[in-house]
Amino acid sequence: MKTALLAIRCGLEGVLGFLLMLVVLVDLPKAIISLQGAENKAYACGMVLGTLIMGCLGYYIFRDAIKVGRRIRKVGTFKEPVLKSSKPLSGIGGWLLLLIIKLCIGALVRILGGFGRENHFLGITEICMGILAGTSAYLLGSENARGIVFAKIYLLLDALYYSYVLILGFGLSGDNGSYPLWFKPSGFLLSSLLYVAYLSRSERVKNTYFPPAVHVEPESEPNTLTS
Fold it and tell me: What is this structure's pTM?
């Protein structure tokens, strides 16, 4: 039963990864073209980088789904569970590495975008969000457990922002050339919420930032015979 559910999840992840890569193939040329005549270069660069990150995320999800699918096929039946690696997941890698890259690029884009804002309040807010993202990336990269708290705060604020944009998108008519106005904000919102859940439930995160304590037995003193 567990393997059957894993197979279903694997299929859904494969479809999701493929769709993300398809969206990038459509959007990336448009993002590069819009970069040439954009007034706010930092924002336009952020759109290009964000599109590239989405493509990398889609490729990683698709590749992971293919790997799990091959392991399920190797087992042959759904009566046996798919064997897990004996080595526990730990260290910077996988989804955690993608999150750190996302935070680094987000910090750069938000800080540069904040300096380009005409509205001082929005500019200061963008810069503060960029500093928070950069701090989160640095702490997570240093395997500091405080980075999880900072990253969750940033991701929740990011989700709140895209929720507001999403509400505006539903209230407006038209589209941005390829998709409805609500399409991209909903994707960014879902991404932020998924990463909050990932930081709370991931085995890699737990082993990297909260490793189990290793109990070391004290060395016993050698017995010496006295004559």
Answer: 0.67
